[in-house]
Amino acid sequence: MSKPVDRLKDDTRFVRITWVDNAGIIRGEALRRDHLESGSDQGFYVSQSAQGLPVMRDNIAPGSGFGPAGGAWLVPDWESLRDLPFAPGLAAVMCRFVGVDGSPWSCCPRTCLERAHQSLESLGYQFHAAFENEFYLLHRTENGFEPFDHSHYASAMGLNNAWHILDMMAESLEVQGVPVQNLMSESGPGQFEIVVDHRPAMMAADNFIAVRETVHAVAHEHDLIASFMPKIFTDVGGNGCHMHFSLSRDGQNVFPNPESAEELSQEGRFALAGVLNHLPGLAALTTPCLNSYRRITPGTWSGAYQIWGHDNKEAPLRVPAARGQETPTNIELKAFDATANPYIGLAGVMAAAHHGLVEKLELPPAVDVDPSTLPKGTCVPMPRDMGEALIALRVDEKLCGMLGKELTQAYMAVKQAEWSELEHQSHEEVTELLLELF
Predict the structure, then answer these.
(1) In the chain, pLDDT over 90 holds for what percent of residues?
(2) Domain boundary residue among 66, 85, 106?
(3) Among 138, 199, 341, 365, which is most buried by a count of CB atoms within 10 Å?
(4) Final residue of a structural domain among 52, 84, 106
(5) What is the pLDDT averaged over residues 163-167?
(6) Lowest mean pLDDT among 224-238, 299-313, 379-393, 424-438
(7) Which candidate, 74, 82, 89, places its Cα nearest to that of 39?
(8) How far is C-alpha 327 from the geometric centre of its chain's CA atoms?
(9) Are residues 153 and 240 both part of a single domain?
(10) Which among 241, 278, 291 is positioned nearest to 400, based on CA atoms?
């Protein structure tokens, strides 16, 4: 019987066991191939405090529940095993955390997503998602960094200028089993976008991580900085990772409405209502960085109000238009960026959709105009900063229940530590910290 590592290239000597922490940092340790193979059943020890580190430094966040004692074990999820084309001789595998008795650890983000998947599956649904990954390419200079170019939105010239680099990114992703749907020049100077295909939730989260790593690595090969930081330049567009999601039953998308060419099905409306209802708390999971809220401002198509709309790019929840016989097949969540732990972020969206489906929540009317043109008080603003988002999460019983007591405590402590320190720093100081971390 073949072993998982037999799928790797013959010259792959090391495999990185990989996880994502509560600060959204991708972490891992490279093990020799034979050592991984011999020890993977038991897992590989790591301090529990690895999930209590804020983005600023490797010091345990106060109140996280972690200290110098206590361990967990990383067990590979072999479905995620992939060779890394940009690092010859190295492969990577995503891992879940287990306790000393082998049971799932309560603070494991991957297990959190599995629980959310099982909740929807118990209703007969499968959840699929895909991300529109926006990033900047930057030149290093003596004075800091400069944009790769100054092209505009959907600029053919911008696409041509960066084509060699973008094509290498796409090719590297496809070798890793991440199908690229399209590439484009975005609105900011040196800003680009890579869109990947819809996949089941766990694979979508794994692909989210693969895109981040691959874009950084290929840019580095060309002496460039790649950054997914939500708001690098104060006067131009920020980076989102807009997430499109759908639900299916027995392999069939349940969002199309056979009775209307323009509306979601009733199931789709319930799911949308659930996500809309929980948007303030979700923001702490899907846009979980102080810098995220410098992107989410009115008039920037980033979703600054708690609304939904038909093809309204000012709405954080958008039902994209469709042509032909198909009615809308997915919902876009614009309030998602690369500072999120994708396993926790997707789990939150799924839990919110689950709530809408179970309770048959009523969907309020769509807002299909610029919300800033409506009378004051008509539309509720989204959290204006990370502090408000954390308060909204703390009082959201459904989302905290989905996370569980221990993961809620650890996650909130990490994010509160980040907010408490970074809220007093200038944009330039925050940029220096985050630019190359995300």
Answers:
(1) 78
(2) 106
(3) 341
(4) 106
(5) 96
(6) 299-313
(7) 74
(8) 26
(9) yes
(10) 278
Question: Do 19 and 93 reside in the same domain of the chain?
Answer: yes
Q: What is the length of the chain?
A: 438
Per-residue pLDDT of 220-279, as tens digits, reads: 999 999 999 999 999 888 999 999 999 999 999 999 988 876 789 999 999 999 999 999
- The single residue listed with the structure tokens 């939730």 is 201
pTM recorded for the entire structure? 0.94
- Secondary structure class of 243 (helix, strand, coil): strand
Q: Measure CA 216 to chain center.
A: 16
Report d(CA 408, CA 400) in Å as an integer: 6
Phi and psi at 225, nearest 5°, equal -100, 130
Which two three-digit tokens encode residue 223? Answer: 């002496």
**Ramachandran bin of 154, using left for φ above 0, alpha for ψ from -120 to 50, beta for the remaining angles:** left
Which residue has 């995503």 as its token pair?
94
Contacting residues for 266 by C-beta, under 8 A, at least 6 apart:
257
Helical packing angle, 266-277 and 342-359, nearest 10°: 120
- Quick check: helix, strand or coil at residue 177? coil
Q: How far apart are CA 105 and CA 109, in angstroms?
A: 9
- Count CB neighbours of 285 within 10 A: 29
pLDDT of residue 1: 47
- What gap in Å lies between CA 141 and CA 320, rounded to an integer? 40
Whether the Cβ atoms of residue 422 and residue 56 lie closer than 8 Å to each other: yes
Where residue 11 falls among pLDDT bands split at 50, 70, 90? confident
- Going by pLDDT thresholds of 50, 70 and 90, the confidence category of residue 127 is very high
Q: Mean pLDDT across the chain, nearest whole number?
A: 93
Q: Is residue 248 domain-shared with residue 153, that is, in the same domain?
A: yes
- Contact partners, residue 277, CB within 8 Å, separation at least 6: 352, 355, 356, 361
Domain that holds residue 51: 4-106
Residues 145 and 57 in one domain: no
Please enumerate in sequence order all residues whose Cβ is within 8 A of that of 265, keeping only pairs 6 or more positions apart, or say none.
Answer: 254, 255, 256, 257, 258, 327
